[in-house]
Each structure stands twice: as structure tokens, then as C-alpha cells.
Amino acid sequence: MRITLAQAMGTCFGVQDAIDLALQPEFAGKLTIVGQLVHNPQTMERLRANGVRVIERDQVDSIATQAVMITAHGASDGTKDALRKRGFTVYDATCPLVIRLHKLARFLEREGYFPVVVGDPDHVEVAGVVGNLTRAAVVKDAEHLPDLAGHSRIGLVSQTTNRLEQVQGIVTAIRAVPGVREVRFIDTICQPVKDRQRAIHDLLAQDIDLAIVVGGHNSANTRKLWELCRDRGVEAHHIEHASEIQRGWFSGRKHCGVTAGTSTPQDVIETVVTSVRTFAEGN
Q1: Domains within the chain, CATH numbers bracketed
Q2: Is 270 one of the annotated active-site residues of the chain?
Q3: What secondary structure letter does DSSP report for 88?
């Protein structure tokens, strides 16, 4: 069996910067992260092993350290201010490309557009963006288009982990909503996500018939990579650990492609690749 690795995969600069900040020696046993710093289980285990406390966003009353960190997915200014008012020292690990998304959404609002975020309303990144706006809507799919009724000038941004072609389809659908006169779309999908999606298209062009996609099950950008393979009719498996790989996946397959999301550490990818090669040799 042939095995091909995606040309672009694994941890991006925003995620790596957040991890490096949280793992600074002076934070050992003295830092609380509000939410998952990144959506990857191995990274979160490493942080806890380094003495970093992790709490959910509705558990701020349980913070027992002076230092508090905002995750790479960001948060609203109101959330950060509330933590500072409670006396915490806030360290902001928000990815620079998520910060750009925040700034552009507020820019569109200042310009008189009704701001709309294309993305998952339950995702922490989207919640942070919307939290900085006076009014806004979140559109995940066509079912949410009626929420735009009564707004003639729409300003659109996207969750950074979306698939560009899906966002473009939603933009087209919004332009056709009755009463909408103007739509301004600013592409805020991050470049590392685009690079990994492009690399998947390159793998698919090489006629892979099996795809292994590595990353946290709650990682939006990793899930999008899996969807790209699925939508092309290629058998794809989204895994977090090499232990999830099954020998039966390789039966009768000729070409396996391997990729990973932007929060997946290199050592996790290498372990998976080693396992894939072991299983492939037996088929």
C-alpha cells in the first residue's frame, strides 16, 4: 500500500504560540486556563501534567490562581474585563488571526452593516466575536437565513476554521434573501486552515482511497478536513490517538493519505504515521 502525507498539516503558529506561553516554567502550578487552550487532548494532558489548571468557562468562581489565561480561540472584551475586575492577571493567548476576525467584525458594525458571523453558534470562537458586537447574527446553514429578515446591509465574516467553498455558498444565499440590498464579505478563514484544506485536495487528486485525519474530536478545523474527504466519497477516519486505528480499514485499499488539524502536535502525527505504516505492511 502506498502512503502519502499531506504537504501541510499539524500545529499552526497561533496554536504553538499559545502552548509555548502556557508551558512557561513560571506558570507551573500558578496558572488557570478558562476553557480548552487548544482542541487537542494530548496537549491538554501535557498542560495538566505541568501543573496548569483547566476549568470550564462557567466555573470562574473556582479559580484559585492569580494568573488566568484566555485560550487560542479568544473571548469577548467583556469576559476579559470581568476577570480583571475580579483581581486576576489575565494573559491573552488568542490567536492573532482570531484577533483579526474580532477587529473586522467590529469594523463592519461601525460601517453600518448588520454583522453576521458564518459559523457554529456553539463554538467558543464565534461566541467571543458576537460578544463584542452590539447586535449580530450567526449563520451556520440555510436554516438560519430567516434570522436576517429586516436587515438590508449585511457585513459578513467567517469563523476561522470554515471551508471556504461552504462559506461562499452561504454568502451567495444571503445575497438572495429578500430585502438584502448589500452584502460585504471579508474572508477571515485563517491561512493555515486554507493550507491544510488545499493539501487535502492535493491528496484527493492523487486518488487516495483511504484517509486518516488526526486531531481532537472537538477540533472544528480537523472535522472540516474529514468532511472534505467524506464529501469526495473517500473512506475517512477522524482519530485522536494511534490506538484508534483498525487493521480492517486497510483491507483492499491501495493508497492511504494522512493529514492532521492545526492543533495536532507533531509527535502525535508521527506516532499515527508509524502505526499506519505497520498496518499497511500487512495488507
Answers
A1: 2-10+191-281 (3.40.1010.20), 13-94 (3.40.50.11270), 97-185 (3.40.1010.20)
A2: no
A3: P
